Amino acid sequence: MKISLAKYVEEVGQVKAARAIGVHQTAISKAIREGRQIFINKLPTGEVRAFEYRQFPHRRKQDI
C-alpha cells in the first residue's frame, strides 16, 4: 500500500514514522515542511519503506 509521508504521519505521528523509516523526527518534519514527494510502502510483513520521487538529474534549488 503506497501513501504519502504526510498522510502516514497523520496516521501514526512524526515520532513513530521516523522510527519506522529509520530517521530522526526532525527529518520527517523538514521533509513535510519542504513539500518533498516522499511516499511510504507498507509491506505485508509490517515493514515500512520510504521512497522519494525526484527529478533526474537532481538540481539543488540554488542551482536553478
Overall mean pLDDT stands at: 91
What percentage of residues falls in helices of 4 or more residues? 25-40%
Q: What's the order of the H and E elements?
A: EHHHEE
Q: Are there runs of 5+ residues with pLDDT below 50, and where?
A: none
In order across it, which strands form the biggest sheet?
1-2-3
Strand content: 15-25%
Work out the radius of gyration: 13 Å
Quaternary organisation of the protein chains: single chain
Per the principal axes of the C-alpha atoms, what is the gross shape?
globular
Q: Would you count the extended β strands for me?
A: 3
Structural class: alpha+beta
How far is it from the N-terminal to the C-terminal residue, by CA? 34 Å
Number of helices: 3
- What is the makeup of the main sheet? 3 strands, antiparallel
In terms of topology, how is this protein built?
Blueprint: E1 2-4, H1 5-12, H2 14-21, H3 25-33, E2 38-42, E3 48-52
Antiparallel strand pairs: 1-2, 2-3
Describe what this molecule looks like in 3D:
There is one protein chain. The protein is an alpha+beta fold and 64 residues long. Helix content is 39%, strand content 20%. It contains 3 helices and 3 strands, in the order βαααββ. The protein has a 3-stranded antiparallel β-sheet with strand order 1-2-3. α1 (5-12) crosses α2 and α2 (14-21) crosses α3. It is globular and about 40 Å long.
Nutshell version of this structure?
The protein is of the alpha+beta class. The protein has three helices and three strands, in the order βαααββ.
Notable features of this structure?
64 residues, 3 helices, 3 strands, globular
